[in-house]
Amino acid sequence: xxxxxxxxxxxxVREQQxxxxxxxxxxxxxxxxxxxxxxxxxxxxxxxxxxxxxNSKEDLFSAVIRRERAALVAAVTAAVEPGEAADHQLWSxxxxxxxxxxxxPEGWAVLHQQARxxxxxxxxxxxxxxxxxxxxxxxxxxxxxxxxxxxxxxAEREVAGLAHALVGAAESLAxxxxxxxxxxxxxxxxxxxxxxxxxxxxxxAWTGLGHLMGGERWTPGGPAHREGPPxxxx
Length: 234
Description:
The chain is mainly alpha-helical. The chain has helices spanning about 10-30, 35-45, 45-55, 55-80, 85-105, 105-115, 120-150, 155-180, 195-215; strands spanning about 180-185, 190, 215-220, 220-225. Helix 4 runs parallel beside helix 7.
């Protein structure tokens, strides 16, 4: 009997294996220190095969960023419940965001820590992801302002600024939640849940937005007031 031939792994599957290995290696080593030799070893393939499929270390890193970016945006989008009130949509989207970053800490580390610190073209991919999520949050804040009857008082620029501030806060909270541990019932370390992180974000951001929608504004050197020109005083 002749030797049994091993089943050929489809290229798409092999590429995903390489990207999985690259995510782990870049997250642990950082972009500069990560080597193609180690990535190939983790993926269980030869280094020439990695170069054949993904060309170079820079191209491989770019492919990792694009994949992790798409997965994160898809997770947030899928978690949102259309037709619900704006605050409920944001709440569900935040839960999806924190759940995904907790379940994929290496992918989040690559996006949040590695990609944006090594210049172009990597930082551009992260900026595009942030802009995509911020645009979604901008729509929710705009819808909430309309529901509250203060859409005319909140300038488009201010709504966009609030959305970007909220996205930045959520990113920082996700990094903290992936590092912070509490003690579980049996003494084991436990990270804050996605629901807990989302609740923290809503208490921090949406409660303040609720006051803003009600006409209250903070002013330097004085209490919040309900009168005055639109915009946050400088």
